[in-house]
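Budget justification, computational time. The allocation requested in the original proposal was used primarily to generate structure tokens for proteins on the priority list. As evidence of use, we reproduce two of the resulting records. The first is shown immediately below.
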Amino acid sequence: MMNMIMAITMFAVSLVISLMIFNMLFRDKKGMRIALNISFVVVLIAIIIAYVTLTK
């Protein structure tokens, strides 16, 4: 159980780091940044749902 929590945490941290890098790369392209942020939110919701269903 602890390994799963650690794996989800590390995945979320790497996702945040990649989001920050992509936002810096595409700082002039507003449409690309909006798409990246929306996909980030979708992935975070999927992580939360997976965590809740796996810990039941």
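The second record produced under the same allocation is shown here.
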Amino acid sequence: MKKRFQRWIIVLMIALLAGCSSVNSGISQQEEDFTKNSKVNLKERAVFYSEEALVKDEIPLNSYIRCTGKIMQKDREGTVLEKGDRFILKIGDTKIQVFNEQTEAFAVGDYVNVYGEYYGFLKGELIEGAEQ
């Protein structure tokens, strides 16, 4: 009787663990969908401002903008951007400071589109490669 009870406990534990693993895979799919939708929404909401608007500081704070330019330098050693790095984006003759808030790999010298929220600097929530 005791062995039978122990076997049932083991079977229930295995079933419980198997059920938890299938729930986790569903959550990761939800996270992926949310991330994809967030990127699409950010790209739709972001407004392109001219270089002149950047220079004259005519961009409303906390607005979502898109900038296209060349990564000139970053604040840490090395050339590859990491999440949390600050870098300078050169847009024509204008330079803007960007805080990298994403994990995609870009390097100093790359030409990129940066989407994010403007605070006098740009919080780069989405960065994509761009053509010159």
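A brief technical remark on that second record: The beta strands are 47-48, 64-74, 86-91, 94-100, 111-118, 122-129.
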